[in-house]
Amino acid sequence: MSLIEYFEGNLADAPTLEATPSGKNVTTAVVLVNNRVKVKGEWTDGPPTRRVIKAWGIHAHPLATLTKGASIVVIGKIITETWEDSEGKRHWREQVQVQHLGASLRDRYTPTEDNETDD
Known about the structure:
Elements: E1 4-11, E2 16-19, E3 25-33, E4 36-39, E5 42-45, E6 49-56, H1 60-64, E7 71-84, E8 90-103
Parallel strand pairs: 6-8
Antiparallel strand pairs: 1-3, 1-7, 2-3, 3-6, 4-5, 7-8
């Protein structure tokens, strides 16, 4: 069973494009997902959630062309990467393997009372 996650956020830094030893391209990036909270009737940004994403195949190059701060929408499978360090200590981290990637349009318009959302 795979866990699928959908989120929208901004790139924390420029993505990193690398090639595996077998020649496959993979791009890694960190996405900061803002959590909106209502304080005294006003919406404000709460602390962001940090999501590490990896894009393979057709998504690797487009993601690599984006810059820090770019707003993106990600749909992907949650995976756990595990490894052992030189001292034999086991490590793991959760990341999202990109299945769909797109530009976010959220900041491309000015909110009004008619189109304001509660999220």
